[in-house]
Amino acid sequence: MAGTIEVLVPGGKANPGPPLGPELGPTPVDVQDVVSQINDQTAAFDGMEVPVTVEYEDDGSFSIEVGVPPTAALIKDEVGFDTGSGEPQKDFVADMSIEQLKKVAKQKSSDLLAYDLKNASKEVAGTCASLGVTVEGEDARTFKERIDGGEFDDAFEDE
């Protein structure tokens, strides 16, 4: 009866109710133990929906794999806005600093195709462009060009 369950849970606030409880109920695992471990592992993503995979065995043992929330959710949480712009090329909803951009890139690095923080930051800036978020006070597309031009090399030097 071993199996896998995939759910989205609120970071640090999973509980034995839906969606987790009904999925785990018929399995041999201790539901409260699973919930506790999920909350420990997702505490850093408080207030965000986090993808979680629980693999369990017939003997009641289990393992938990915590995914990373979508890039847009990380940006919204970091900068503090609820919804992106309807016209992201004209109407900007927030501004992000280079340090905030790097923080989101680090959080999301395991899911990105980039091989270093500089390129991961460019991927995050691409999401900023689609949300209507400026970076360092300017359109995120222009910011990506400035990164390519070497203007922010010192910000990525220690990484």
TrEMBL record:
Domain Large ribosomal subunit protein uL11 C-terminal: 68-135
Chain residue ranges for the region called Disordered: 1-26
GO biological process: one example: translation
Superkingdom as given in the UniProt entry: Archaea
GO molecular-function terms, A-Z: large ribosomal subunit rRNA binding; structural constituent of ribosome
Residues in Large ribosomal subunit protein uL11 N-terminal domain copies: 5-62
PROSITE patterns xrefs: RIBOSOMAL_L11
Membrane-spanning ranges: none
Signal peptide, first to last residue: none
GO cellular component term of the entry, any: large ribosomal subunit
Family matches, as PANTHER family: 60S RIBOSOMAL PROTEIN L12, LARGE RIBOSOMAL SUBUNIT PROTEIN UL11M
Family: Belongs to the universal ribosomal protein uL11 family.
HAMAP family named among the record's database cross-references: Ribosomal_uL11 (MF_00736)
Quaternary data: Part of the ribosomal stalk of the 50S ribosomal subunit. Interacts with L10 and the large rRNA to form the base of the stalk. L10 forms an elongated spine to which L12 dimers bind in a sequential fashion forming a multimeric L10(L12)X complex.
Protein's name according to its UniProt entry: Large ribosomal subunit protein uL11
Native source species: Haloferax marinum
Organism ancestry: Archaea, Methanobacteriati, Methanobacteriota, Stenosarchaea group, Halobacteria
